[in-house]
Amino acid sequence: MKVRKAIVLAAGHGTRLRPFTCATPKPLMPVWGEPMLGRIVAMLRSWGVDDIAFNTHCLHEQVKAWADGYRRGAAAAGDKVKVKVSYEPEILGTGGVLNPLREWIADEPFYLVNGDIVVENAPNPLDKIRNFDSTAVIGVALVSESGPRTIEVEPESGFVTNWRSQDAGCDGTYTYCGITALKPEILDFVKPEGFSSIVSAYEDAMMHGRFVKALKSREMLWTDAGTIPSYIDLNRDGDDNAFTDIPQVKAALEAVGSKPDSRVEFIGARGSERVFFRCDKGVIILYDDGNRDENGLYAGHARFLKSRGVPVPEVLADLPGIKTLVLEEAGGEKKMSVDDYAKVVEELVRFNALGGDPGLDKLNLLPGFDDETWVWERRLFQRYCLGSRFRREMPKDVEAELEKVAEILEKEPKALVHRDFQSTNVLWKNDKPRFIDFQGMRLGPAAYDLASLLYDPYVNLSEKARLALSALYAKRCGRAEIEKILPFAAVQRLVQCLGAYGRLASVGQPQFCKWVLPALQNLLSAADDAGLDAVGALAEDLIAEMRRSHGHEGCSCGHDHEKE
Length: 564
What we know:
Blueprint: E1 5-10, E2 30-31, E3 34-35, H1 36-46, E4 51-56, H2 60-76, E5 82-87, H3 93-96, H4 102-105, E6 110-114, E7 117-120, E8 137-144, E9 151-153, E10 160-162, E11 173-182, H5 198-207, E12 211-216, E13 221-224, H6 228-238, H7 247-255, E14 265-270, E15 274-278, E16 283-287, H8 298-307, E17 315-319, E18 324-327, H9 338-352, H10 371-387, H11 396-410, E19 415-417, E20 426-429, E21 432-435, E22 442-444, H12 446-454, H13 463-477, H14 482-506, H15 516-530, H16 533-549
Parallel strand pairs: 1-4, 1-6, 4-5, 8-12
Antiparallel strand pairs: 2-3, 6-11, 7-13, 8-11, 9-10, 9-11, 14-15, 15-16, 16-18, 17-18, 19-22, 20-21
Helix pairs in contact: 9-13, 10-11, 10-14, 11-14, 11-16, 12-14, 14-15, 15-16
């Protein structure tokens, strides 16, 4: 049977692939130099499809422009392929997409294909199925034994019998590849209005004795390119320099005068919704400021700090329209000596002293530290450290002491605070420190930054060095009393760190769990210095619990702590 029509799903928000999809729809992201949409259309055309509909929503103008360009190119080559764009003002889902296209579908079978997959050697589903005309069969779906394997297939009939398996990954389960040939009768099972999933239609069809048949192929190579790790790995494996084709990277190279084929290396991604590439001129940063406003503030903050003599990377290009930034290479991390720390402390004094600079009025600083901030940090600690990890409530005496800490810090003069001044945010170039990740800077107590550096769980800094460096800071800033404030600021900072580690572990970054023990040890030290007996007792108790359990059985983050 020949199927002439296909619907390609191209309306999604691409949430898992942000920040790339802040500027480019996911189906138009390049894989090995070609948009995923182009690869899918080529596959469909090889199967004999000559009438293709694309649904659009997010960045819909770009998908429409691509579809129109494809149609014009085909026409110029004498190919009369038909192209239709179905714009959805409100996204309709993988099932709802069919409603505006009911007349277009009419009484013909059609393919329904995800726009964000990469597939090689995919067989035409209908070439491999003999009983597509059977009343019991409403569609044929390509499936794979790789991936999450969340659908169940009955061995004898080959019918999908469960689209939401509770036994994902077990025998008899497969991964839906996003390619299905469907009979027009599927429309009888699609909710006639609003958002709906095609899976709901499949499930309704099953209730009426109509099934989707599963087809697997040993020759087919398939992957879901819808996440940052899978997308990066796919391009890195398939092309020696594929990242230059990413639209934001290409624009960045042009902005700094690099050649289009300049070598581009993926450096990594951060939980703060940014990804980093290195090129011949510097570091390219792609960012998402939809959920984190501060990511869009980096360039302005960097220019201000640079103008005031603070050692930060120079901004080489700022492209806010596509959420892209290029900075000079700032150097690398190193294990710091006490002399190195002294250099950092000297520069931190300069940074913190800018709290009264009139130039701050022109910056979009985040709201400063206040009572609400201190409460938020305590709640973070309570929920993700005490609750999720240790399954405890916040003791009332600990709560009272932490409220006292907040009162002390709230009385401090308002300095310009980096907000996350840990060792990993100090890079070194030509034996000089460079500060990075200052986009969250705001007004607050300078002691918070100093505590972030001197009580950093990532570094085992001796008490002697800590005292010497805090004395140096006090001398340079002219406030001897800051040495007394420091342990209180350290308690507050470490409470925030412990909460953050737990939250990050809960969203798939368990590597942060290994810093819980050193953070608790530093919390104990700071609490003792501040005379906070309840906080110190809690820290001591949690440390003992971790040591007793060896494997840290009380943790719910899913990480294997035996390796910590």
